[in-house]
């Protein structure tokens, strides 16, 4: 596989570096994972149609566009609340993510 260069502003590159480091990976792996797992709009539509067909066939449920849009909004709101709660708990916690050599019994250091 040949490599390609993707040009981004330095600020974006630096942010990618921080994200990659926090995940224990490289920018290259981060971009590769994004490209492999992110669906296009057409792929999302196809997946939604397959899900609707499955629900109709196996459960006798016909989901309307309005019902689908409402459920999408509810899911986005729920994920946003979960992310907000996780962000608040990570900024208020005094526990670090790295093991402490002085506290081998607990594996995490409260300092």
The ordered H/E elements are: HHHH
Describe the main β-sheet briefly: none
Number of helices: 4
Number of strands: 0
Helix content bin: 55-70%
Low-confidence stretches: none
Average pLDDT rating: 84
Distance between the termini: 46 Å
* SS strand fraction: under 5%
Using the alpha-carbon principal axes, give the shape. Answer: extended
| Helix/sheet category | mainly alpha
* Radius of gyration from the alpha-carbon trace, in angstroms: 21 Å
Protein architecture, described:
- There is one protein chain.
- This protein is mostly helical.
- The protein is 64% helix and 0% strand.
- It is built from 4 helices and no strands.
- The chain has helices at residues 10-22, 27-37, 41-59, 65-92.
- It is extended.
Topology summary:
Layout (H helix, E strand, L loop, with lengths): L9 H13 L4 H11 L3 H19 L5 H28 L19
Brief overview:
With 111 residues, the protein is an all-alpha fold. The chain has four helices and no strands.
